[in-house]
Write a structure and sequence with these properties.
Blueprint lengths: L10 H5 L5 H22 L10 H17 L16 H4 L4 H10 L19 H14 L5 E5 L7 H4 L4 H6 L5 E8 L5 E8 L14 H12 L9 E4 L6 H9 L3 E6 L11 H4 L11 E6 L2 E7 L3 E6 L7 E6 L3 E6 H20 L11 H22 L2 H6 L3 H12 L10
Parallel strand pairs: 1-4, 4-5
Antiparallel strand pairs: 1-2, 2-3, 5-8, 6-7, 7-8, 9-10
Helix pairs in contact: 3-15, 6-13
Pfam families: DDE_Tnp_1_7
GO biological process, one term: non-replicative DNA transposition
GO molecular function: transposase activity
């Protein structure tokens, strides 16, 4: 962390490192402006009154509570069913919450410039979030570029009933992150729409490798010359991208796939399997300048491209059944850092906000709030405040909901 938080710092204090009061006040102003514009066009709404900053915090608290209690609909808080939550429900009536939900906005009016940008309603918030991520934390040397799990992804869909699957709509955006492999802190976020006429739409790009290369450049634009080692999956790994990163002083290590990767410029002899049977733990290396192409065999051929590790240094992969399998150091490092991120995805999913709005910009907003809460907990665990209370992830989430709703710390949230 770049600043030392006091031992008395609350969950809300850590959250507001990323979503400060001025950001919440902007939501209040924009929501009231949109409500006024909407009513001028479609007729007055007698049940509406301008929202306040206190109500906006409570609104965020209500929606965030769906991540703590795993309920699909935020409106179930006011029901008498299993997810009914009387202690929270007393803070605001359901009708008032629905009014705020109806008019909630980050940007009420389309800007005159760049009006084709599909994410204009959320972009100022994303820019603010990116800046706060960079200002509050210095990540480790090793970082990963990847797509984090979202609750519409296959691992979550397998647990859904057929009725729930019918209700789900296909997500219209893709999200990539640059994540610290030592702590799990998400340092930067890149969002792209899957449809649309604007420059942020996938239709503007010819193929996926071209898009993923663009995403990688965006995520790494602030780390040139910082001695960072970036790990990438097959969709991002390419000779052209790694060559550009080398010129910027960014070191790389990526897994290659003949199906998913852009293999332009790579020697064909390294991309095809040899006729002679390979033994487990064997590898071949070809070099060009500082870049090394490694073909390693372990029940199949795995290919890696790197300029961050010496190809002559040996590492080892430890398997429970097979014991130690020799490999280049780059392969050992890739496996270690990627496996940490896979384990970390499970922790990060604890803060999924399950509220599902229809509008894409709102889906991106609540996903961004989930990431902000995730980062807030990481900073909390590294602070003196953790030594005082030692909250688990679930306890931190519940405490944050109580503080957003301005409830007494002793009152239950469920």
């Amino acid at each position: 962390p770049t600043q030392k938080m006091p031992s008395t710092a609350t969950a809300l204090d850590f959250f507001q490192l990323f979503v400060p009061d001025n950001c919440i006040q902007n939501m209040v102003v924009q929501t009231n402006m949109y409500a006024k514009k909407f009513q001028e066009r479609f007729g007055s709404d007698e049940g509406w009154r301008p929202v306040t900053a206190e109500e906006m915090k409570a609104f965020l608290g209500f929606v965030t509570s769906t991540s703590v209690h795993r309920c699909e609909s935020v409106l179930s808080i006011w029901s008498s069913g299993f997810f009914g939550n009387r202690s929270i429900a007393l803070k605001m009536s359901q009708s008032r919450f629905e009014k705020i939900l109806k008019y909630f906005h980050i940007v009420a009016f389309r800007p005159s410039q760049g009006s084709n940008q599909g994410l204009y309603k959320i972009q100022p918030f994303l820019d603010s979030l990116q800046q706060s991520f960079g200002c509050t934390f210095r990540p480790s040397q090793t970082q990963v570029l990847h797509e984090p799990l979202i609750d519409e992804d296959p691992v979550f869909i397998t647990t859904c009933t057929e009725r729930e699957l019918r209700k789900r709509k296909k997500r219209k955006f893709s999200l990539w992150v640059r994540q610290c492999t030592s702590t799990g802190f998400i340092c930067q976020v890149s969002v792209h729409l899957k449809e649309g006429q604007g420059s942020d739409g996938l239709a503007a790009l010819k193929n996926k490798p071209q898009l993923h290369s663009l995403v990688a450049k965006q995520l790494c634009q602030n780390i040139s010359g910082q001695n960072t080692i970036v790990f990438t999956g097959p969709s991002m790994t390419s000779l052209s991208l790694f060559s550009q990163f080398s010129k910027q002083g960014i070191f790389c290590c990526g897994l290659l796939s003949t199906r998913k990767s852009d293999c332009t410029g790579l020697p064909q002899s390294m991309l095809v399997c040899g006729s002679a049977p390979a033994q487990r733990g064997q590898w071949r290396i070809m070099m060009k300048g500082s870049l090394s192409l490694i073909s390693w065999y372990n029940k199949g051929h795995f290919r890696f491209l790197t300029n961050g590790y010496s190809p002559t240094k040996q590492g080892v992969i430890i398997k429970r059944k097979s014991g130690e399998i020799p490999c280049p150091l780059a392969v050992e490092a890739f496996a270690a850092h990627l496996s940490y991120i896979c384990k970390y995805d499970d922790k990060y999913s604890k803060y999924f906000i399950f509220h599902k709005p229809n509008k894409t910009w709102q889906q991106v907003f609540w996903l961004s709030i989930s990431i902000a809460i995730n980062n807030a907990y990481i900073l909390y665990k590294m602070s003196d405040a953790y030594a005082v209370k030692r909250h688990s992830r679930a306890q931190f989430g519940e405490t944050l909901v109580r503080e957003l709703l301005d409830l007494d710390q002793g009152s239950p949230t469920q």
